[in-house]
Write a structure and sequence with these properties.
The chain is an all-alpha fold and 125 residues long. It has 2 domains: 72 residues; 44 residues. The chain is built from 6 helices and no strands. Helix 1 runs antiparallel to helix 5 and helix 2 packs across helix 3. The relative contact order is 0.10.
Length: 125
């Protein structure tokens, strides 16, 4: 599956779909639907928007789709000057960085929800 199809699925399979996600991303639901529409090449998701989409949904299929469609160098030979273990450790570090960022995003979202609930109930957060 290509990145465009994965972005479409990420939006439309998320609980509430584009109606729920778009305001959290600072756009209308019609704009978000248009950006992930696989039948058009206008109004595509930017890299920052794709990153925000993954952060808001916790769904990283966009990265997985990109990895599947990116031609790799020879699987038997790492890039010049790098060992296979170096390449693996860098890939592991990238995955760890994404996971760390997702944890921080989730913590931030939970903290914001707690403050919002407190404001509505009149209690201290």
């Amino acid at each position: 599956m290509n990145v465009t199809d994965v972005a479409y699925d990420t939006v439309h399979q998320h609980p509430g779909g584009s109606v729920a996600l778009a305001p959290r991303m600072g756009m209308s639901d019609a704009t978000l639907r248009g950006k992930v529409n696989p039948n058009t090449d206008r109004n595509l998701l930017s890299l920052q928007e794709a990153d925000a989409l993954m952060g808001k949904t916790g769904d990283f299929r966009i990265l997985q789709g990109r990895a599947r469609t990116t031609p790799s160098r020879s699987p038997r030979r790492p890039p010049a000057g790098r060992t296979t273990s170096t390449c693996r450790s860098r890939a592991g570090a990238a995955v760890a960085a994404v996971a760390w960022r997702q944890e921080r995003t989730n913590e931030h979202d939970r903290a914001g929800q707690g403050q919002e609930e407190a404001a509505h109930s009149g209690r201290e957060p």
